[in-house]
Design brief:
The protein is an all-alpha fold and about 250 residues long. The protein contains 14 helices and no strands.
Length: about 250
């Protein structure tokens, strides 16, 4: 177990670069610069009042917030808080490779990193959303059953994973509409984060022009359907991304 965890941590270090682009843009907030006041020749009583207006605790809190926004910190938190789910997910996906040739389990990790931020901002149960994100493909890829997911992580996680598991009889757009029809915010957030990672510029850059066009045509309408059903998604993700690119 310890050896696998170490291997998992090392692999994350190698592949985290793919997932950092959206994390930085979602989490980053520009710190406010407070104007520096020049010393004034005033009575001591007034200067004491001015000093009270700028408590020493604020800079420390800003530093803590900055630390939480760091993708490396987010990764470490995931490893500590969700070690069991990560361990099980990486075991189930062992040997799987994604469209750009990297170990497939790095995709659920990248989705979970995004979901951790989105769920917190949207007021959705963070633990439920993150665990569901880590396991969102294990049933669809045939590595586990819904009953196994439920036995390990409970009915709520199993329900979200079940919603995210595509019925092969449905077209992709029908599948997306089924997620919307479920009214599960956790499922919609996970699927949206999944689409964001699948369409990230760094991932698409590794594909052929034909594959990029095909996936964009497939995923962009799906993103719009989710945004229309859950408008908060757009304000949480797209606005920060635009600000980063400018």
């Amino acid at each position: 177990m310890a050896r696998r965890k170490k291997k998992t941590e090392e692999s994350i270090e190698e592949n985290l670069e793919q997932s950092q682009d959206a994390v930085l843009s979602v989490e980053k907030e520009e710190p406010k610069e407070e104007p520096k006041e020049e010393p004034k020749e005033e009575p001591k009583e007034e200067s004491k009042e001015e000093s009270k207006e700028e408590p020493k605790e604020e800079p420390k809190e800003e530093q803590k917030k900055s630390a939480r926004k760091n993708p490396e910190t987010i990764k470490n938190e995931l490893m500590e808080e969700y070690a069991d789910a990560i361990e099980w997910m990486t075991t189930l996906h062992e040997g799987d490779v994604d469209k750009i040739g990297v170990p497939y389990w790095t995709h659920p990790m990248a989705v979970a990193i995004r979901v951790k931020s989105l769920a917190k901002q949207a007021g959705v149960n963070v633990k439920l959303a993150v665990v569901s994100a880590l396991l969102h493909d294990v049933v669809e890829d045939g590595h586990a059953s819904i009953k196994e997911v439920e036995a390990r992580y409970g009915k709520d996680v199993a329900k979200v994973v079940g919603i995210l598991t595509r019925d092969p009889k449905l077209s992709y757009m029908e599948y997306i509409k089924e997620i919307v029809a479920s009214a599960s915010k956790s499922a919609m957030i996970v699927k949206y984060a999944d689409l964001l990672h699948n369409t990230s510029p760094r991932r698409l850059a590794n594909l052929s022009t034909q594959d990029r066009a095909r996936l964009t045509k497939k995923y962009e309408p799906a993103k719009r359907i989710l945004e229309n059903a859950f408008p908060l998604l757009k304000s949480l993700v797209l606005k920060p991304l635009k600000r980063k690119q400018s």
